[in-house]
Amino acid sequence: MRQNGNPLLEVRDLIIRFGGVVALNEISLEIHEQEILGLIGPNGAGKTTLFNCLSRLYRQSSGDILVRGETITPLGAEDMAARGIGRTFQNIALFETMTVYENVLTGAQFAMNGGLAADIFNGAKVRRERAETRERIMHLLSLLDLADIADHTIADQNFAVRKRIEFARALAAKPSLLMLDEPAGGLNREEVRHLEDLIRQVRDEFKVAVLLVEHHLNLVMKVSDRVVAMDFGQKIADGLPHEVRAHPQVLRAYLGEEAA
Amino acid sequence: MTFFLEQLIIGLSSGGIYAIMALALVMIYKSTGHVNLAQGEMAVFSTFIAWTLVQMDVPIWPAILLTVAVSFVGAIVLERVVVRPFAKADDLVVVAVFVGLFLSIHSLAGAIWNYEVKPFPSAFSDGSISLMDDLSIRAHTLGSLLTTGAVLTAVWFFFRYTRLGLALRAAADNHESSRLVGINVSVMLALGWGLAAGIGAVAGVMIAPVTFLDPGMGLAPLIFALAGALLGGITSPFGAALGGLIVGVLEAMVSAYVPYGIEFRELIALMLILSVLLVRPAGLFGEIVTRRV
Fold first, then answer.
1. Which residues of A touch B166 (CB under 8 A)?
2. Which residues contact B13 (CB under 8 A, 6 or more apart)?
3. Neighbours of A174 (CB within 10 A)
């Protein structure tokens, strides 16, 4: 881990326009190493747009994104794993034709960008690395309660399990920043409570920062070190969970005009 | 009984060729969502390259290996220049592109090598191999069976156990997720075409000694391979390969046991395609693809 005084991730004056619509309007925020940052806001606030821009699936109209002080603006999505940025999707995007193990394996295999053809030739080194990778993945799978279904296909798995598989795949790339897009969506109360512990545990064990987009406000407030609130593409609050929860503009965004 | 065994081996031998062509179809289908109608013509073009090399006194096996390499590179260029620009186009446009590719490659082969039917040398000895007292099989039939078997095994091993194989599978499965785990999807798509063309080249040089070589040679194998791929499931590499073998055996049995069967074996393949699409569109091992829109 390189410490050069820069935040892990810094977003500067980010603007994204789709045609005439301003989806993100001068968003600036910072995430520090091993910090859990909650990102809240009503539907259409621009949270997922920001996510997609951070993982370089979208390009911003202006503004800059820096990882440990270096811009990632010119890079593409395939470079993000090597920069230590991993994510999950709101609607889940697993490799449907692969087993659970293979899905997580993809996370571990390509983040480092080593020669893809090398493993056909260098047997001994490959076998050792393969054993290490396997051990690491099996650890991730047991941490996420997936070890028993390692060799099952994705098609047979329910929504909650799929979310954990995506979580494991993102972690397998050894990210410094893990972006979770609505991890609690579609989960029952018990599963949400479990997720709470899991996010903290993962932060502590893998030394990652977490950017958490979530509608489930209780979860965000409990688990986050800091919370950023957005509405209509703008940042309306940034602070400790209890500060943001009481912020008049946040109340207005969530509860309507008369509440504030 | 001996006659049946003989037909079975002949069927498996041509089935092996359909199996690897079906595999090539599946590889392109999984990454583009379309059947590469030009797959047969690409294989024929490759076979003409091998033929030219043989005319230049290059020994047959080096000629085959060189042809596979040239086909691999050629298809990567083809994907980049012709297919890629239409990656996001409507289905109908993509089908038109594939039909155009089919006609262009067909005509180009005709223009370069003309339409005269040419003999193509077998990569194996011309004789027969005696398996039992009264059962002897042509060396080419057995050699072709072993070759396609080796290709199927190698491809299976490659996709199952190598990092590159995993990357190719991932790229064909989900573009966004592949990019986010660090896979360069556009490189993988091009490599997929290269592999499919290399496999097609092997199919071409194995089939040409049997059917002789001319620009129209690719159509019948393509229909049989497509029937095999659909029967086994066009989303399942294993299913498609098995389907190809089944179609090959079916073709041999119909030719051998049904009066005039040899005249309408292509009809059997087309009927098989129709019945699979009517009864079980996903095929034996394929999955029904549903997509959130």
1. 102, 105-106, 109
2. B141, B142, B144, B145, B148, B248
3. 17
How far is the alpha carbon of B163 from chain A, nearest alpha carbon, in Å? 6
Contact at 8 Å (CB) between A109 and A140? no
Q: Which helix (H) or strand (E) holds A85?
A: strand A85-87
Question: Is the CB of B176 less than 8 angstroms away from the CB of A119?
Answer: no
Residue B125 lies in a domain: no
In eight-state DSSP terms, residue B230 is H
Report the complex ipTM.
0.83
DSSP string, B39-77: HHHHHHHHHHHHHHHHHTT--HHHHHHHHHHHHHHHHHH
Mean pLDDT of A36-64: 91
Under 8 Å CB-to-CB from B233, ≥6 apart: which residues?
B239, B240, B243, B282, B283, B284, B285, B286, B287
Alpha-carbon distance of B72 to B57, in angstroms, equals: 22
Which CATH number belongs to the domain containing residue B237 in this structure? 1.10.3470
Write the CB contacts of A43 (distance below 8 Å, at least 6 apart in sequence).
none
What SS3 state is found at A32? coil
Query: Shortest CA distance to B79 belongs to which of B18, B31, B26?
Result: B31
HSE (side-chain half, CA atoms, 13 Å) at A20: 0
Mark yes or no for CB contact A80/B287 under 8 Å: no
Could you tell me the pTM of the whole model?
A: 0.87
In a domain, B132, yes or no: no
Can you give the residue range of the structural domain that contains B218?
A: 2-115+137-279
Residues B197-240: tens digit of each pLDDT: 999 999 999 999 999 999 999 999 999 999 999 999 998 899 99
In chain A, the domains with their CATH numbers are 1-84+175-260 (3.40.50.300), 96-170 (no CATH)
How many domains is chain B partitioned into structurally?
1
Is B175 domain-assigned? yes
Q: Is residue B61 part of a domain?
A: yes
User: Could you identify the residue written with the tokens 């079906």?
Assistant: B22
- The reply to whether residue A57 touches residue B184, judged by beta carbons under 8 angstroms, is no
- Our CA-based measurement puts residue A134 at a distance from the nearest CA of chain B, in whole angstroms, of 13
